[in-house]
Sequence to fold (128 residues):
Amino acid sequence: MQNSFLLAQTQSEPVSTVLEQADTSQAVSSDSKDSVKPDYAFALQLASVNTEQGLAYTLKKMAKRAPSIFQGKPILNVEVADVNEHTYYRLKFGGYKYLKNAKADCEAIKRQGIDCWVSNYTDNRIYF
Fold:
């Protein structure tokens, strides 16, 4: 299956808040072989769709709706889940060590018109 995005296993810096995201998100080097896996427990799930094309469409739509959230190089991951013989692609934003920070950013994202909920962190980075 051909991916719409570039998928890679990488290490990233945490996103402290949506409003400060451009200052705190980091570009990730491609030399991740010797990197330590991120110590994140939480991420924000923004969407769940049943095709990779749907994931690309949804991401572009969200980026137009709330460009401040997706500026810079945000941490975006995809979790592929098989549920009742159906495959879903879950778009996840950020990496959080602490639940309170994830909840605060989720509320900020909701104020931008995008629904989200706190979920488990998935280390399957995508770039757009």
Q: What stands out?
A: Residues 1-32 have pLDDT under 50 and may be disordered. The radius of gyration is 14 Å. Helices lie at 21-24, 52-65, 67-70, 99-111. Residues 15 and 24 are 6 Å apart (CA to CA).
